[in-house]
């Protein structure tokens, strides 16, 4: 597909400067094809895959067409979600940086009308909004569209999926007949064809074939995995590849919660997104994820829609997506901007046929992979650990402890034995992978992906000439409590159990109850052996619901009808509060502080 330099597309110096400042070297195929067509005034139907640069494809000509002297809305961009509206507004803000007198505002539900009204009243020419809120403002008379030149529907397929059809039609009927109308979508199903034929005038259809263009950037692999072994397979793949930044897609909210809790209790830094999570919380999670405050986002398709992250190392399809379209959407989040990404897909049982039909339909280039064995995981962890020791030695970032070492040598211990003993201690109970090389141990600090000072959370401001740079530096201080994601090591029992795929044991097993560690208090949980509860369930639930590290849980003693679990004293209040009312093994939990037995 053809790509051209931006300066061959008929753009003004202001826009060229902005594009250069954003680091775009040349226009993507959809941009190359669409920008001159829009500038020429034609209606356009633009179709290309996720990540192909559609936002700039419409935002660049839209900003070109704004007359800064007219202080009225000239461009209306409709987006399916608040996140997307904010992202589009941010990108448009950057593109308008050097064009004086152009203002834009995102408007969406959940934010005060007042604030949006002020930005509109101030003369914003570009409005980026969700259909519902746009309609509200039209009805209130706070959004006037009589000067509108351009209406853009971004992610039209998603908007229709989300039930915005009536709102969209209502808006399209209310705008001046002279407006230019642009549809952007990854797919053009029948409902969109209807809209196009009803509201567009002789549109230019521009379709960029996606698969061929996108596929080489994403290495796609599938694994045939037994349903019960998915979590084990997932963690092995993460460990062997030493992934640190990715999204894990699940098909249901329950699965998201469950997997998030499991991973969290195994010491991975995770968080979750799904439809039941409040908007404020969602924004926080997305903000944190963009800033790499945690490693893996566990999400449903709907929740992750419109989340714009560029440089994921990996996308996991923990559950097979519904169709090839969703699949492409999901994996399009990795391997962007020329970097190679990985997409790992799990299929169990009959799902292999579904995958095969997706492969045929979308001509996916996906190969079969093998889940790494425990030995391979071990080897990978060991080599990470080895690297870490080597680089510490190289960088000399340690204090000498000559005296202690001399004393040991004096007592006749060999230096190799001393080192082995230290490594053994770092590994915890010994035998298995060095926990220091695992995902979560404090010893992994040198390669921490969480750079200090990256704790900035961008608000979603209206942008204006002055506001653009200001809004980006004026971020509120880092939210407290971010570090609570840093989970310390989970006991690893040695890992010589080649028990995959049943692989359910290990990891979670905890020492039997032998006297209480200091600082721990026992809590009573009304679920026991009768409900087939395991220590893993207890640790997983507690770590999951509190989002505290699994190490706050000490010994666990499972009785016929109840369980006693030691919990770090300072967290016992949180644990009791968060655990109350949730379900474990189908039983509603009513935890209480247990009478401390004298050890
Ligand atoms: P789409 O809407 O088609 O899914 P986006 O507009 O969100 O894609 O763009 C995906 C990513 O590519 C964004 O991070 C964007 O900044 C970047 N991008 C867009 N155009 C270019 C370009 N010409 N050169 C380099 N990166 C680009
Ligand atoms: Mg887009």
Notable traits:
binds adenosine-5'-diphosphate; alpha/beta; Rossmann fold; 7-stranded parallel sheet; 38% helix; 4 domains; single chain; binds magnesium ion; 599 residues; 15% strand
Summarize the helices and strands and which ones pair or pack.
Layout: H1 13-21, H2 29-39, E1 44-47, H3 54-65, E2 75-78, H4 82-95, E3 104-107, H5 113-121, E4 126-129, H6 131-140, E5 150-153, H7 156-161, H8 165-174, E6 180-185, H9 190-199, E7 204-207, H10 211-214, E8 218-224, H11 230-241, E9 246-249, H12 253-265, E10 270-273, H13 279-290, E11 296-299, H14 301-304, E12 314-317, H15 324-331, E13 341-347, H16 351-362, E14 366-368, H17 374-395, H18 402-410, H19 415-426, H20 465-473, E15 520-525, H21 535-546, E16 553-558, E17 563-568, H22 572-579, E18 583-584, E19 587-588, E20 592-593
Parallel strand pairs: 1-6, 1-7, 2-4, 2-5, 3-4, 5-6, 8-13, 8-14, 9-11, 9-12, 10-11, 12-13
Antiparallel strand pairs: 15-17, 15-20, 16-17, 18-19
Commentary on this structure:
With 599 residues, this protein is an alpha/beta fold. The protein folds into 4 domains: 6-207, Rossmann fold, CATH 3.40.50.300; 218-372, P-loop containing nucleotide triphosphate hydrolases (Rossmann fold, 3-Layer(aba) Sandwich), CATH 3.40.50; 375-427, no CATH class; 462-596, Alpha-Beta Plaits. The chain is built from 22 helices and 20 strands. It has a 7-stranded parallel β-sheet with strand order 3-4-2-5-6-1-7, sandwiched between helices. Strands 10-11-9-12-13-8-14 form a 7-stranded parallel β-sheet, sandwiched between helices. A 4-stranded antiparallel β-sheet has the order 16-17-15-20, with helices on one face. Helix 2 (29-39) packs parallel to helix 3, helix 3 crosses helix 4 and helix 12 crosses helix 21 (535-546). The radius of gyration is 27 Å and the shape is elongated. Adenosine-5'-diphosphate (ADP) binds at residues 24, 27-28, 31, 50-56, 308, 310, 336-337.
């Amino acid at each position: 597909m053809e790509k051209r330099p931006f300066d061959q597309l008929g753009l003004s110096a202001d826009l060229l400067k902005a594009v250069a400042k954003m680091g775009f070297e040349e226009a993507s195929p959809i941009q190359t094809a669409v920008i001159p067509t829009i500038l020429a005034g034609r209606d356009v139907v633009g179709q290309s895959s996720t990540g192909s640069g559609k936002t700039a494809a419409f935002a660049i000509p839209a900003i070109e067409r704004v007359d800064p002297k007219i202080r009225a809305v000239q461009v209306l961009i409709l987006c399916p979600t608040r996140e997307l509206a904010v992202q589009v507004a941010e990108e448009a803000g950057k593109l308008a940086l050097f064009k004086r007198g152009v203002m834009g505002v995102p408007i969406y539900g959940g934010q005060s009308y007042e604030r949006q009204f002020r930005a509109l009243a101030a003369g914003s020419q570009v409005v980026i909004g969700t259909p519902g809120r746009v309609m509200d403002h039209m009805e209130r008379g706070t959004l006037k569209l009589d000067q509108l030149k351009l209406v853009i529907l971004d992610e039209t397929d998603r908007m229709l999926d989300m039930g915005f059809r009536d709102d969209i039609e209502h808006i399209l009927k209310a705008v001046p007949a002279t407006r230019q109308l642009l549809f952007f979508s990854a797919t053009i199903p029948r409902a969109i064809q209807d809209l196009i034929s009803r509201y567009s005038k002789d549109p230019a259809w521009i379709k960029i074939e996606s698969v061929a263009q996108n596929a080489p950037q994403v290495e796609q692999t599938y694994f045939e995995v037994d349903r019960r072994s998915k979590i084990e397979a997932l963690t092995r793949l993460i460990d062997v590849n030493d992934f640190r930044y990715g999204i894990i897609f699940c098909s249901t909210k329950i699965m998201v919660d469950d997997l998030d809790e499991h991973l969290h209790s195994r010491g991975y830094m995770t968080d979750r997104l799904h439809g039941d999570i409040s908007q404020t919380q969602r924004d926080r999670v997305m903000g944190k994820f963009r800033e790499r405050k945690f490693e893996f986002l566990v999400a449903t398709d709907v929740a992750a829609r419109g989340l714009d992250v560029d440089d994921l190392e990996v996308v996991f399809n923990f559950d097979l997506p519904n169709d090839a379209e969703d699949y492409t959407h999901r994996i399009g989040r990795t391997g962007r901007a020329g970097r190679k990404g990985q997409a790992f897909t799990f299929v169990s049982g009959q799902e292999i046929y579904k995958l095969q039909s997706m492969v045929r339909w979308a001509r996916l280039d996906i190969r079969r992979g093998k889940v790494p064995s425990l030995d391979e995981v071990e080897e990978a962890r060991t080599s990470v650990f080895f690297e870490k020791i080597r680089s510490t030695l190289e960088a000399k970032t340690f204090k000498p402890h000559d005296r202690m070492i001399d004393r040991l040598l004096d007592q006749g211990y060999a230096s190799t034995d001393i080192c082995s003993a230290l490594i053994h201690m770092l590994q915890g109970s010994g035998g298995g992978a060095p926990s220091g090389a695992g995902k979560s141990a404090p010893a992994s600090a040198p390669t921490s992906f969480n750079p200090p000072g990256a704790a900035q959370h961008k608000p979603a401001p209206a942008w204006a000439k002055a506001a653009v740079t200001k809004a980006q530096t004026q971020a509120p201080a880092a939210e407290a409590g971010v570090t609570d994601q840093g989970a310390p090591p989970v006991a690893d029992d040695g890992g010589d159990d080649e028990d995959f795929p049943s692989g359910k044991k290990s990891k979670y097993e905890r020492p039997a109850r032998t006297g209480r560690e200091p600082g721990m208090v026992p809590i009573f949980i009304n679920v026991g052996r009768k409900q087939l509860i395991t220590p893993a369930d207890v640790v997983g639930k507690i770590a999951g619901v509190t989002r505290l590290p699994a190490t706050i849980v000490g010994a666990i003693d499972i009785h016929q009808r109840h369980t006693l679990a030691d919990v770090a004293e300072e967290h016992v209040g949180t644990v009791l509060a968060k655990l109350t009312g949730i379900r474990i093994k189908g039983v509603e939990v009513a935890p209480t502080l247990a009478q401390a037995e004298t050890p």
